[in-house]
Amino acid sequence: MNDVKKIVHEMAELVRGSYGPRGKETLIFCPPEAPILTSSGYTIFHYADKSSCKKNPIKQLVMQTIRSLYREIGDGVTQFVLMLDLSLSEMQRHHDITLYTWACSFASLKESLIKLCNEIANEIIIPVKLEFNANTRKPCKELFNAAQCIVRTSLAGAFGSNAVEYLSNMVLDWVFRTVEGCLYLPQSSNEFKVAIAKILHKSKALIIQLQNGQLDKSRVAGHSEYLLRNPHYNRVYDQFGQSQRFVLLMGDLCDDMNLNITLQVKTNCDVKAALESSLWALEKFLLKLLHEYQVNLLLVTGNCPPHILDLCRRHGLCCFYYLEKDDVLELAERANIHYLVSINDPVSESNVGWNTGPLQTNRLGGILWTLFSCLKPTSAIVVPQLLLYGSCKSLTQQYYYAIRKALRVLCAWMDTGYSLPGGQAIERVLAQKLLSSKDKSTAVVVHALIGTWGILHENLTSSSQRTKGSRLLLEQLILPIDYQGCIYERKCLLETKELGRIESHCVYQGDGRNIGLVHPVQRTECILKYYLDTLQQLCRIDSIHTIRKQK
Q1: Are the C-beta atoms of 11 and 81 separated by less than 8 Å?
Q2: Name one GO biological process term (predicted).
Q3: Whose C-alpha in 194, 376, 457, 544 is 20 to 30 A from the C-alpha of 448?
Q4: How many CB atoms lie within 10 A of CB 141?
Q5: Does domain 226-376 have CATH number 3.50.7.10?
Q6: Max CA-CA distance within the chain?
Q7: Residue 22: CB atoms within 10 Å
Q8: H-helix or E-strand containing 517?
Q9: Mind listing the pLDDT tens digit for each residue in 25-74?
Q10: How is domain 2-125+419-550 classified at the architecture level of CATH?
């Protein structure tokens, strides 16, 4: 148990030292999930000591659980780690109980605990009306407000209130604008989740991080717009009128495409004839694009030699080369066309894209981008790009992770379409109902629930005092209002020993529904499942680990 406790406690100390007034990072966060550095507790574990996870089976197990929890609900990692640490500390006090007994107790406790959690949730569940106007294709007011509460809760405290509000509105604009462009509007929460999941899946490629700008410059691109990184753009390419027909080529555009073929020739004349034949084949390909399909733009991911560029210009073709493959693949999906891999591939209308507006090339964030302003609309789900600005690279990266976290939480929320009061309100009621139990495994869970609430609550309310004992926390827990949470409210000044006077936020207790502090309905249940499963597995793996060390 000492090995397990040491590893988990190191992780918990990493959490405690990275958020709040007493942390090494002077960022202010809101319970129950204190976003760490990049608005998710998962990120700090992802970057901290990654190599050691492969060597230690205990740390590997905890890290795998953290990743699974983050992928499923995008939240709760901080709460999970703190609960795990408090539980192991409490278990160490009971030396008379074996690890096998603990494992069996947690396994039997899981089903009854999840059932009780669901019963509590059913009493205070907040249903969401999921409707879209058939004419305007906009969400109903109830759906928009509920989604706004979910996103703001997931990001509360990560940045200033203005930044959180702007990021929340931008995420919702991105989601609902994507749905607005779909051929069919969602009729259920599962259909809505499909659209959000697609945005999350594509967000890594579609969020364009731009430095040296303020957040309020960020915007969601239009459905017919697409920004393409163009590192070798030249002003001589500014020759287009009001429309372009383009073809995508994944590879090099040159006259020696078949480099693996060896030609046996006897004279220099034969060499010259072979090269001219290869160049003639390329010229034939270009003329076919030009005359049969009216193509005037080639987008190439590979190289294009100078003499080939001259050949293209002579025929009135423009060529952008050394483009990013991911950008070209996304453009192919956006334009609903197929790309070519060789000049020998058969060409048809399905390979030709159409942009009906002028091209615009500008420098954004130190990179040249070519804007396709009027791509031909398609029937597929089109996820527009998101132009994300930040004053520096690190802050832009934090905004990026915050947006991805908000999308994950929205996906988890749309599993059922229901919400629950936030601020660990459910956890506190669950702890109240379990207080009368004499079972030691239940007492460990109660200690973890109350202690985690106390740590996260103290993070915003106290200065540099140590966390209160569990008895004092119990007295605070048993209050007349059942569903009290920690409500993020307004700025104040705190006196700390390590940092002196700093700006923080004060909180008050109350029902989170009154000000829109809500979470997905399965959030608490999911955290409890992972928490109990991990405790059970840690007890078993520690037994095996101890036996191997003794051998």
Answers
A1: yes
A2: chaperone-mediated protein complex assembly
A3: 544
A4: 10
A5: yes
A6: 100
A7: 20
A8: none
A9: 433 333 333 333 333 455 556 555 555 556 778 888 888 898 888 889 88
A10: Orthogonal Bundle (1.10)
